[in-house]
Amino acid sequence: MPLTGVEPARMNRKKGDKGFESPRPYKLTHQVVCINNINFQRKSVVGFVELTIFPTVANLNRIKLNSKQCRIYRVRINDLEAAFIYNDPTLEVCHSESKQRNLNYFSNAYAAAVSAVDPDAGNGELCIKVPSELWKHVDELKVLKIHINFSLDQPKGGLHFVVPSVEGSMAERGAHVFSCGYQNSTRFWFPCVDSYSELCTWKLEFTVDAAMVAVSNGDLVETVYTHDMRKKTFHYMLTIPTAASNISLAIGPFEILVDPYMHEVTHFCLPQLLPLLKHTTSYLHEVFEFYEEILTCRYPYSCFKTVFIDEAYVEVAAYASMSIFRSDEWVLKGISGYIYGLWMKKTFGVNEYRHWIKESGFPSTLFNKASTYTVLGILQYVSV
């Protein structure tokens, strides 16, 4: 009888090794994220999530999830109203006026607050009480569906709104929003189990204005317009189990470019940057081929998306099946400025050239080695 995929792992497991044991009394299998209202002027979003979980213990009466900044309006479990408590101890690290006012005391208090909501310790900011009508259901370890309505106003993390102060509609102004932050920051923009150890499949839905484009993880299943054609909803499906920390979103009036060499790859950029986008991403297919060759395995997702935005905190943020880059306007300005400097040096001489560098406020050492640094900078960003 041939061995199954599980049996070899059991054979290699040492005696007494139970493997990974989840700190949570349930297993998350699927999550729906639906954001049906995005207001760029108020910098707010409204939506709901639905988590499908299977209890792993018979006496499960409380479910802890992660959520920061979000205002929770309503929680239902299997269509029954559920009571909940929201408590984020990191908002007030030092509860009382302690005589100890030093960095060491604050660091210890903050570490304790973070541990109190750590999902890998079975904790969370949102504690949901399972209705008594479902206790028998839980004892039989049957599925539970948790529906949570929430909103988010002027977030300080998780989502970043970019709204230029110019005239015109939001699309004409190039307004956009994107997810950001380091690991375990998905809880900042929707309730979830914000842990790399909790994987599940995802259904992602985002309703935006007709002139906007919503880019998220997985395959774009369909785009549905409303009856008045003023709004549309993007439906994404991510069938490979993925942690919440790898879920991302970017919404804006993006121009779209399908990679001419790899049709599974799609690029997005802000208006009027399409020529630069074509040049910047022209080598991406070679990067894919190199990685697949060196790792001797195929790219795990059926598609890949690159999104170039403004005001990003990092040069690149990688997520499941997509990456978010910052739009590098300095590349164009840097190249043109460097060429202008070469022309000035050739036409007016070295003294005028150095005077221009000094008046511009650039470090002279940078321009003394301009040829090296400029070429390296161009190669770095063109080959992304």
UniProtKB/TrEMBL annotation:
Keywords: Nucleus, Transcription, Transcription regulation. Residues 1-23 are annotated as: Disordered. It comes from the Eukaryota. Belongs to the TAF2 family. Gene3D superfamilies: Neutral Protease Domain 2, tricorn interacting facor f3 domain. This is Transcription initiation factor TFIID subunit 2. One of its GO terms (molecular function) is transcription cis-regulatory region binding. Transmembrane segments: none annotated. GO terms for cellular component: transcription factor TFIID complex. The keyword Cell wall biogenesis/degradation does not apply. It is found in: Nucleus. One of its GO terms (biological process) is RNA polymerase II preinitiation complex assembly.
